[in-house]
Design goal:
The protein is an alpha+beta fold and 184 residues long. It has helices at 10-22, 65-74, 108-117, 138-143, 148-181; strands at 27-29, 33-39, 42-43, 47-48, 51-57, 83-88, 96-100, 123-128. The chain is 40% helix and 21% strand. The strands form three sheets. A three-stranded antiparallel beta sheet has the order 1-2-5. Strand 3 (42-43) and strand 4 form a beta hairpin.
């Protein structure tokens, strides 16, 4: 099925959703990533939003930094314009949170990006996957496929995370946080 895939892949699934919304196909790039240019979101009057590069590193997760840095350098993107979409154990499953900077919370993909860029000051769209049940090792948990109940919720979660990424691009981080962090 479309959502075959494990929790650690949820960031790539959100990029796929953004590519689908914008009619963008991601093509192999020499930076060891699949990438495509798109206009994200809609401005007032239905005008397409700003130009962005949608990309998924084709490296291992814990080596994401190299491809991210190479793409940013190729497209002349400064760190403060980078938005990383990633799975987050410290947030309840199905919840999306936004932040800039801060620690990596044990996420090796984020650690690799911070190390390669020499900064932690980039925006993160944190897609909550919750904590592993019982005593399961978090490393095993993130690589497990979503269960049947989670798979039912997954399209909704990907939709919210894609909306949040669009909001950061259109409204900026603070505006997006106010919208996505306020209790529903």
């Amino acid at each position: 099925s479309t959502y075959a895939g494990n929790r650690h892949n949820v960031g790539a699934m959100v990029i796929d959703e953004l590519a689908r919304r914008t009619g963008t196909s991601l093509k192999a790039h020499k930076a060891r990533a699949a990438a495509g240019q798109a206009r994200l979101g809609l401005l007032p009057g239905g005008v397409p939003g700003p130009a962005v590069i949608l990309a998924v590193p084709s490296s291992y997760m814990n080596e994401s930094g190299g491809p991210v840095k190479a793409l940013m350098s190729f497209f002349s993107i400064p760190a403060e314009r980078l938005i990383v979409i990633h799975d987050e154990l410290d947030i309840d499953a199905g919840v999306v949170r936004l932040k800039s900077g801060g620690g990596e919370g044990g996420h090796n993909g984020l650690r690799s990006i911070s190390t390669s860029l020499g900064t932690k000051d980039y925006v993160r769209v944190r897609v909550g996957i919750g904590r592993p049940p019982g005593r399961m090792d978090p490393a095993d948990y993130v690589l497990r496929d979503f269960g049947p109940a989670e798979r039912k919720e997954l399209p909704f979660l990907l939709d919210v995370a894609a909306d949040a990424a669009e909001a950061v691009v259109i409204e900026g981080l603070l505006g997006a946080q106010q919208r996505f962090h306020s209790p529903v």
